[in-house]
Design a protein that fits this description.
By secondary structure, the chain is α/β, with parallel strands linked by helices. It has twelve helices and ten strands. 43% of the residues lie in helices and 15% in strands. It is globular. Bound molecules: pyridoxal-5'-phosphate.
């Protein structure tokens, strides 16, 4: 049983942090009856894909609520962020900017090498929003996250050039994964605990897709601080080594420190599974596509090939291998990203084949 006093303390501290309103919370949790019957485990879905306010929500909205709290306080006009050309985070940032009359400037790494001659899915929506888009060529020996961090360094000159003062621009890191953005998922964990209590559920495992690590870091920070026994599994969507565990632990610790809580997480606190990445970030895998099909055909739920499909592939593999206790409650955190179903064929892979 988690520590209720610590839960309350965390909640009080987080409520004191400046926050913008960018979505409809709490997001719904409900049971996936057909999948639950298939695997003999009570599988619940948390609909952060329906976070609002726009049609195209997702997990980044939670981080952006805290980041825009600071942005509005600072009074910045030019908002920079970074991602792949199909970045969900970049799109959600541009959406948030429009709500507050700010100027979105997106540095997008062309991971799949298709440019933007024929814009589809997120980059199409970025254009509809009138965001300023800079395409970053992806270097051979660089991983996509290194390229995004390089773009961040490069963008600073431009930020200074177009801004009247330091306060006039704000650089949001890839995925919004700063300590402040990570608070969005510390808060999300508390939101989930309240729903669990109200519905008389008892989650043993939570599964989600991990990329920049802000989601995993925030959820794990709250989980460890309140001494909860839920296992928070981050299924990786890009190749990373063990230094990732340390990075996420540091991000979790820094997020708690922002609240004035002196609590340290170590790499041993972070649960990551690297077995479902496939060939790499934004590269489709048969396992992920099979998971997308299972969710669609069993439940009418759309996942995506880049993030949630890979996370679901991991979860389904655990279920099929009997790694999850029968009859226990499990939560799959739908982090959004379904717009990728309308992205380039390269991202979809064999999704439309008859048998996968
Ligand atoms: C960004 C993203 C994730 C991963 O979240 P991080 O906080 O970057 O680890 C998962 N799913 C979707 C759909 C995303 O867009």
């Amino acid at each position: 049983m988690y520590n209720l006093a610590k839960y309350q303390k965390l909640k009080n501290k987080i409520n004191r942090i400046e926050r913008a309103e960018l979505g409809f919370f709490p997001t719904q949790i409900y049971k996936l009856e057909n999948l639950s019957a298939r695997y003999g485990v009570n599988i619940y879905l948390k609909r952060d894909d329906l976070s609002g306010f726009s049609t195209f929500g997702g997990n980044k909205i939670r981080k952006l609520e805290f980041l825009f709290g600071e942005i509005l306080e600072q009074g910045a006009q030019n908002i920079f962020t970074y991602g792949a050309t199909q970045s969900n985070h970049a799109l959600q940032t541009a959406i948030a900017c429009r709500r507050y009359n700010l100027n979105p400037i997106l540095y997008l790494v062309d991971v799949i090498g298709e440019g933007i001659k024929d814009p589809k899915a997120n980059i199409l929506l970025d254009k509809v929003l009138g965001a300023e888009i800079k395409i970053i060529e992806f270097k051979e020996n660089e991983d996509e996250f290194e390229a995004m961090y390089r773009a961040k360094a490069e963008s600073k000159n431009y930020a200074q050039e177009i801004s009247e003062s330091e306060d006039d621009y704000y650089l949001i890191p890839p995925g919004g994964a700063s300590p402040l953005g990570t608070l969005g998922f510390v808060n999300a964990y508390l939101e989930m605990k309240a729903q669990e209590f109200k519905e008389d559920l008892n989650f043993k495992n939570v599964f989600h897709a991990t990329g920049t690590g802000g989601t995993l870091g925030g959820l794990t920070a709250a989980n460890k601080f309140i001494n909860d026994d839920i296992q928070v599994h981050g299924i990786n969507v890009s190749h990373k080594d063990d230094s990732y565990l340390k990075e996420v632990a540091e991000l979790s610790t820094a997020a708690l420190n922002l609240l004035g809580i002196d609590f340290k997480l170590s790499d041993r606190d972070i649960i990551v599974d690297n077995n479902y990445v496939g060939a790499g970030y934004e590269i489709p895998s048969t396992r992920a596509n099979r998971a997308v099909k299972i969710f669609a055909e069993d439940e009418g739920i759309f996942l995506d090939p880049v993030y949630t499909g890979k996370a679901a592939a991991g979860m389904i593999d655990y279920l099929e291998k009997g790694k999850i206790e029968k009859g226990s409650d499990l939560l799959f955190w739908h982090t959004g990203g379904t717009n990728a179903l309308f992205a380039e064929k390269k991202i979809l892979g064999n999704l439309l084949d008859n048998h996968i």
